[in-house]
Amino acid sequence: MRRVAQGPIAWRSELWGSPLRALATVLLLGLLAWAGFHAFEWGVVHAVFRPDADACRAAQHGACWGVVAEKWRPMLFGRFPYEEQWRPAIAVVVLSAVTVLSAWPRSWRWWLAPLWLAALLLFVGLMHGGVAGLSTVPTSRWGGLPLTIGLAVVGLALAFPLALLLALGRRSEWPVVRTLSASYIELVRGVPLISVLFMASFLLPLLWPAGWQPDVLVRVLMGLTLFVAAYLAEIIRGGLQAVPRGQTEVAMALGFGRWPVQRDIVLPQALRLVVPALTNSVVGTLKDTSLVTVVGLFELTGALGLALGGDPVWRPFYLEGYLFVAVVYWLLCFGLSRYSVWLERRLGASSA
After folding, report:
1. 171: exposed, middle or buried (C-beta count within 10 Å: 0-12, 13-18, 19+)?
2. What confidence tens digit (pLDDT) does each residue in 10-57 have?
3. Which of 99, 101, 160, 317 could form a disulfide with 67 if both were Cys (CB 3.0 to 4.6 A apart)?
4. Helix/strand/coil (H/E/C) assignment for every residue in the chain
C-alpha cells in the first residue's frame, strides 16, 4: 500500500514537487504578496483611525476606520435607545455565555435546561424591559448583534427538537407519520427562506383572529424555526441511516424497547456522525438571520444600513462598515468551525 506523506514533507511535495507545481507556487505567492502589500497600504499605512470625517475624505488612498470608531454602537445595537444600550450588551453576553457553556460536553446535565430558561427570561427581560424599573423597548427597536445572536440561538434551540421528531418520523414504520414528515420536509426545503419570512410577517396576520396577533419578531422566529428544522431533520436522518441496523436488532433481541434503543444506542452515534454537517447548518442559520431586514427587523447588517444610511457625513464609508460587520460574522463562524473540529475529536476519542 502506498504511504501518504505527512507534515513538512507533504507540504514540500505539494508545493515544489515538480517544475509545474513550483511555478504555480511562485505565481500564487507573488499574487498574495502583491494583494497583501496593497491591502496593508490601504488598511493600515494610509488609513484614518480617528473619528474625523474630514480627515477620511482627505485620505483618498486609505481606509476610514474612523467610521467604526464613530458608529460602532448603532452598528452593534441598532435603534435601541442610546442611554439603555447596556441592556442589550448584558443580554447578548449572558446568552453567549450560556451557549458556550452548553457546548462543553461535561455540562450536559439536567441543570442545563433550567439554566437556559433563566437565561432566555433574562435576555427577554433586559431587551424588552417593563420589569424591575426598566423602560419598555418594543421589538421594532431591537437590532444589531443581540438580535442576530438571539434569532440564531433561539431559532436553533427550538428547531432541533422538531427536526429530531421529523427525522424519526420520516423513518417511522407508520405510513401516515412517514408521509406527513416527508411532505413537510420537502415542502419547506422547496421554498427560499425569504418567502417563509414574508409569509410569517404579512400572510399569517391575516389568518389570526381579529385583535390577537403575535409580535412580528415572534412570527419571524416561528418561520425561521420551521425552516431550519426541515434542513436539520435531513441531516439527522442521514446520521440515523449511517448507524448499522444490526445494532438495533441486537438491542431489541436483548429486550430493549424501541424508544430506549433510539435514545441510548442509535441517536448518540447518529449525532456524533453528523457533527460537521450540523455545524454547517448552524453557520448557515447564523448568516441567514441577515434576511430578516426585508421584513423590518434590523439585525447586524440592517443596523449598519441604519447607522450610515441616514448620516450624510459618514455615508460614503460603507465599505469599511461592511468590512467591520464581515469581521464580526467571520469571528462567530470561525469559532463555530473550530468548536466543531474539537467536538468531533473529543466524541471520537470518547467512543474509541
Report:
1. middle
2. 677 777 778 888 888 899 999 999 999 999 999 999 899 999 888 988
3. 317
4. CCCCCCCHHHHHHHHHCCHHHHHHHHHHHHHHHHHHHHHHHHHHHCCECCCCHHHHHHCCCCCECHHHHHHHHHHHHCCCCHHHCHHHHHHHHHHHHHHHHHCCHHHCCCCHHHHHHHHHHHHHHHHHCCCCCCCCCCHHHCEHHHHHHHHHHHHHHHHHHHHHHHHHHHCCCCHHHHHHHHHHHHHHHCCCHHHHHHHHHHHHHHHCCCCCCCCHHHHHHHHHHHHHHHHHHHHHHHHHHHCCHHHHHHHHHCCCCHHHHHHHHHHHHHHHHCHHHHHHHHHHHHHHHHHHHHHCCEEHHHHHHHHHHCCCCCHHHHHHHHHHHHHHHHHHHHHHHHHHHHHHHHHHHHHC
- What's the whole-number average pLDDT of the chain? 87
- pLDDT of 57-111, one tens digit each? 888 888 999 999 999 999 999 999 999 999 999 999 999 999 999 988 888 888 9
CA-to-CA distance for 190 and 33, rounded, in angstroms?
44
Q: Is 49 within 8 Å of 38 (Cβ atoms)?
A: no
Q: Is the pLDDT of residue 258 over 70?
A: yes
pLDDT tens digits, 103-152:
888 888 889 899 999 999 999 999 999 888 899 999 989 999 999 999 99
Contact 188/230 with Cβ under 8 angstroms?
Answer: yes
Q: What is the pLDDT of residue 9?
A: 66
Looking at the DSSP bridge assignments, the partners of residue 143 are 298
The string of pLDDT tens digits covering residues 283-338 is 999 999 999 998 888 999 999 988 888 888 888 888 999 999 999 999 999 999 99
User: Cell triple for residue 334?
Assistant: 470561525
Residue 34 CA to residue 161 CA, distance in Å, equals 49
Instruction: Count Cβ atoms within 10 A of the Cβ of residue 55 and give its class: 0-12 exposed, 13-18 middle, 19 or more buried.
Output: middle
